Q: What sequence folds into this?
């Protein structure tokens, strides 16, 4: 039996969010054909490992060269030296860009590298930084491929970062859509007990500033319908979200169970999926909600307006938007038949366009082509 491909993953954080969930699904799909070493730029943010399937061979790197720090030849040389023990290097977002630059500076003997760009943190949510653009442009010159999930990022990669069209691959995020239509586990969300006449508004996100979840709390707080708000995820904004709920008088209506694996078991317990992000690209939580037959209320960030079915378009609100988001949530909360109609249209589109089988195959092809080893991962 051929030796499994040894893959190094350089993550800005390995707390479960959209990019981490996708990376784990790919790890699970590759099974015993690959083994994985994971580096997190935030060493204490590792909750995504809970979603790795039993039997997948992986380790959390112990004492790797730091991903964060001042640029220096010594740092880059140490990172390149570390990379040379692997068959493939996968880097994710700006927080791992020093790994990309290390390969640019010390390319000899280093394995192929594929970079993934899924979006921007709060410091670039409202506009890209020219110095970072120049850094990306130079560093990405040594990457074998750049994968993005959205049209917005594809345009930036080809234009602002001046990457060759053959290097940039737009692969939309996909999920096992059929699983989301199955039976929902009433116990899957600790603390959620639906009261008569109550509408459940839910969101799944890493609790980071760029997700602006306090804005969602304020939008729900302004609704007149009886709403219970469920926020699944963990992160540094947790206390700010709770404080926003207390300020809006929603303390008893907020459920924050933290990170929960297997979203197919609980997303369908929501009545409405809502987002309030300052920046998105192709959020996997929207695909999950669509597959579960939910309507989406969200601002028009990233590809969200194109992702949802036409029936859902009026609930993708204008910016700026707490009041408009409130109105979209309220309209859906008041009309169960409207929720059913919009949700069914979303579900049909998710099944047709966002199933993970195609996504996995396309990622595997990019990775195998970078290594020059077709057929090694699937």
A:
């Amino acid at each position: 039996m051929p030796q499994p491909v040894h893959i190094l993953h350089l993550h800005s954080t390995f707390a479960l969010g959209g990019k981490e969930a996708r990376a784990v699904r790919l790890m699970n799909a590759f099974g015993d054909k690959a083994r994985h070493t994971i580096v997190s730029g935030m060493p204490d943010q590792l909750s995504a490992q809970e979603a790795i399937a039993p039997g997948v061979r992986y380790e959390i790197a112990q004492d790797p060269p730091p991903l964060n720090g001042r640029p220096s030849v010594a740092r880059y040389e140490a990172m390149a030296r570390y990379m040379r023990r692997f068959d493939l290097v996968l880097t994710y977002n700006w927080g791992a860009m020093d790994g990309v630059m290390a390969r640019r500076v010390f390319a000899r003997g280093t394995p192929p590298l594929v970079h993934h760009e899924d979006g921007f943190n709060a410091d670039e949510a409202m506009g890209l930084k020219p110095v970072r653009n120049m850094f990306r442009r130079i560093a990405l010159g040594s990457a074998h491929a750049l994968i993005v999930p959205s049209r917005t990022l594809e345009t930036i990669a080809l234009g602002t970062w001046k990457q060759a069209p053959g290097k940039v691959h737009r692969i939309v995020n996909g999920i096992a859509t059929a699983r989301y239509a199955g039976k929902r586990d009433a116990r899957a969300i600790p603390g959620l007990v639906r009261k008569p006449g109550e509408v459940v508004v839910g969101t799944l996100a890493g609790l980071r500033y760029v997700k602006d979840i306090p804005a969602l709390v304020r939008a729900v707080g302004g609704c007149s319908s009886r709403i219970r708000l469920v926020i699944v995820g963990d992160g540094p904004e947790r206390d700010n979200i709770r404080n926003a709920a207390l300020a809006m008088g929603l303390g008893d209506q907020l459920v924050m169970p933290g990170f929960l694996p297997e979203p197919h078991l609980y997303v369908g317990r929501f009545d409405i999926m809502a987002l309030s992000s300052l920046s998105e690209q192709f959020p996997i939580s929207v695909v999950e909600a669509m597959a579960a037959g939910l309507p989406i209320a969200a601002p028009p960030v990233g590809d969200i307006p194109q992702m949802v079915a036409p029936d859902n378009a009026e609930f993708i609100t204008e910016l700026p938007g707490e009041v408009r988001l409130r109105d979209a949530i309220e309209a859906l909360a008041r009309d169960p038949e409207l929720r059913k109609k919009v949700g069914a249209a979303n579900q049909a589109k998710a099944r047709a366009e966002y199933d993970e089988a195609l996504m996995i195959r396309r990622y595997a092809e990019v990775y195998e082509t970078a290594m020059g080893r077709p057929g090694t991962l699937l």
